[in-house]
Structures are given as structure tokens and as C-alpha cells.
Amino acid sequence: MTVRKKNVFYVACLLLLSGICQACGSSDGPVMAPVKGDVTIDGTPLPQGDIIFEPADGKGSASAGVIQQGHFEFSSSVGRKKVLIFASRKTGKKGDFGEDVMESYIPKKYNTDSELIGEVSPDADNKFVFHLEQTP
User: Fold this and answer.
1) 84 forms bridges with which residues in the sheet?
2) pTM
3) Which of 65, 74, 61 is nearest to 29 (CA)?
4) What does DSSP assign to residue 52?
């Protein structure tokens, strides 16, 4: 499975689980709030990617959205969140079945080893701006 397919699969699973949890209709579910913001990489809006807000304490459900032209907007459960950002691009190579081979180009410190933190509040604007750099 290519990196892009893994990222899409991971985000799709999180969205599905989040939707199932919300569809249960329990009033005891997490309090949700709209979040929005911008993501740049090396000073340029990130063309396309995925963003995930995970509970910083590891308890509860994650929320995810799509980044398009550097902007994202979705609903997240409230609280302190660890933010993960993924994006991939074509390598110019072809796979066994002629498909484009993709590579992740976002440094691990913004996804698998994320250092990004955000606080989602039910009564705040919840606008986040993340300036990523590819160089260490």
C-alpha cells in the first residue's frame, strides 16, 4: 500500500469511527466545536493534505479533516489536542500496475512524531495556523 493510500485509509477509518460515535445519538457523547485554520509549508499554503486532531491525553475519539489550498475546516471534540498533518506527492515513478508512486513529504515531527498542540474550546473561535518547515 502506498503512503498516500495509507494516509487516506487512516483518515477514512477515523472519520468512519467518528461518524459512528456521533450517529449513536447519545447525549453523553463528546462536546464538539468547529475548528478551522491554515497550514503552510516553507511559507506556501499546503496544496492538499489531511489533518487530524487527537486527544493529547490519548483518551477519546479523534477528528479529521481535509486540507485544501492551505485551509481546513471541520468539527472536533473539545479539549487539548495533538495535531497531525499528512501530505504526499508524486515521485515520478510508476508502481507495478502503472499507478503513480507517492511519497510523504511532511516531516515526522508534524505527524507520526507530532509536536503540534491545539486547544479546542466550545466557546472560542478555534482558528489554528500551522507553519511547517521541511528542513530540520
Assistant:
1) 52
2) 0.78
3) 61
4) E
